[in-house]
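Input record (one chain):
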Amino acid sequence: MSLQIYNTLHREKEEFIPLVPGNAGMYVCGMTVYSDAHIGHAKSYVSFDVIRRYLMFLGYHVTYVQNVTDVGHMTDNDEDDGEDKLLKESARTKIHPMQIAETFTRRTSEDLAAMNVLPPDIMPRATGHIIEQIEIVKDLIAKGFAYEVNGSVYFDVTKDKEYGKLSGRKTEDQEGQGRVESRSEKRHPNDFALWKKAEKGHILRWPSPWGDGFPGWHIECSAMSMKYLGETFDIHCGGIENQFPHHECEIAQSECSTGKTFARYWIHNNMVTVDGQKMGKSLGNSSYLRDLFKEFDPMTLRYYLLQSHYRGTTEYKKDAIEAARTGYQKLLSSYKKLSEAAGKIGARSLHEQELAHPLVKQFIEAMDDDFNTPKAIAILYDLAKETNSALDKPNKAKLEELYQIWNALAGQVLGILPTSDSRLQASDDREKKVLAALIEKKIQQRLEARAKKDFAMSDLIRDDLAQSGILLEDSKDGTKWSLK
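The corresponding structure, as predicted from the sequence alone:
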């Protein structure tokens, strides 16, 4: 069976046939970096990481692009008259929005790396692609798909006859469901902002043909994905909650601008829920990765998330993670015993005879069926049983074969084996030196803030370190730190 992907665009599984044979372009909607990542975010990026890994396992050259949204993502259900999430956090903390973006981009990358999520090949930022976004907006105006009002530009959904094809929400079906408020500049309730006028005091602003302003959320992803993957590319990934309006708007503005198909396969992961309700920062029910790492190994959390299919919901429960930890340790125990018995064997691609192994064939069949990780993990337990039997009657060739199978299926594809990647596992001494240097630098920044009477910044640095498990103690002899 060839790889079958559930394409949200057509609501069915389809054979994956890349635009360019042997290559696969993937665009993944990244986080809006105004706070830390929670377990719901991790489900998205672990799921898409496995998809990327499996495509690589199949021999594709994958270009994986994941953006950083550091401007333009609005609050109030993403309505155009809401407040930019970075600016809202900036107003709350009295910290420049770009400093907030830098901080949480770094922290999110660290958290995902701890869960063995491979870094993107390209990680573009919305603020670094303002020129490209303005050019698309200019093009849409010239072609009659957008209009300018008082320094803002909106996409006219009534001009796009295919608007709604991803979500199934048609413009004409919503005519009677809402009306354009008298204060609104939009011609139609579903029209969306491509560019917004920056009012006085708005920090994030750039010059444009329509005056100083900032981009709408949707136009950012169109500009960044097409810049690095082309006007038509293979796979667009994102959370199901962003199917409408975000992804719908991406398709509309991109295809009306280029006249070409935008993304050919749309992959949407489902949510992590708490008591049946979506986990979300605004709902106050988030469990942040940095807090969970104090209780659970990051790789246990990765394993826990892969036990549910990416298109299914994952109900967050501590006892479920505890059960996952037990199961994960059983698998690791078999692998570690095998690793010791097999000796030091370099990991490599599976040979033809190893690919013909019944469990490898079953694993590939599971992954070919829309990346069925729960079934793939179940097959690993059968592999553990075979491994334990082989360890009772050691045969070097057999042990070496099983070792390569473990590394390929559990390591290369699912990414749940302990990694020896130096980026993720430096020596203890080096880690201690780097940690100490970073903490001392933070302490110095805090002292400088206090000297300037910037106590909000001072408190933020202290709280930020405390959240990471580092306690500060001030005394007449200076500031000392310790780990919780």
